[in-house]
Amino acid sequence: MDATTIIMVLLLVVLVFFMFRNKRKRDAQQATLQSKMVPGVEVMLSFGVYGTLVSIDDEANVAEVEVSPGTVLRVHRQTLGRVVEPVADDAVVSDADELDARPADDLIVDDSTTADRTSPAYGERVDETRLDSTTDTDKPNKA
Fold first, then answer.
1. 48 vs 17: CA distance, rounded Å
2. pLDDT in tens, 31-74
3. Listed residue (101, 123, 121, 105) closest to 113, CA to CA
4. Which one is predicted more confidently, 24 or 107?
5. What is the rounded distance in angstroms from the CA atom of residue 74 to the CA atom of residue 62?
């Protein structure tokens, strides 16, 4: 055997090794996802709809997801994308509590920006007479 054949065989072995390793990872992730899929948990479907899982029928591969009170979607089981974990917003709440606890004199107001009333603010409607107001002095004289 020459060197190129040995290199090609080794490359093939490494490729097969990584293929099996990635498959095991995906299988483990799928197993943990299926263990979390119980009725009552909040889920996100693969097409971006959030809702509460009502029931799963393993034989028919059908899941029922309540997206709003009284609205139940009947979807294929594979569309259950992930379980939504509740996020704790402790930092945001504590910052807001600190601001509310300060006296009004300690609040900083940025007065560095003053409104220029000659130009409209973004999204403000402007009278057309103000934009098209040209006077005779603005026009050049023809002599």
1. 34
2. 888 888 888 899 999 998 999 999 999 899 899 999 999 999 99
3. 121
4. 24
5. 7
Both tokens assigned to 17? 């090794």
- Kindly report the pTM of this predicted structure: 0.47
Question: Is residue 63 a contact partner of residue 77, using CB atoms and an 8 Å limit?
Answer: yes
**How much is the pLDDT for 6?**
94
* Of residues 27, 34, 28, 95, the one with CA closest to residue 63: 34
**Beta-bridge mates of residue 83:** 43
Give a three-class secondary structure readout of the chain: CCHHHHHHHHHHHHHHHHHHHHHHHHHHHHHHHHHHCCCCCEEEECCCCEEEEEEEECCCCEEEEEEECCEEEEEEHHHEEEECCCCCCHHHHHHHHHHHHCCHHHCCCCCCCCCCCCCCCCCCCCCHHHHCCCCCCCCCCCC
What tokens does 75 get?
A: 């979807």
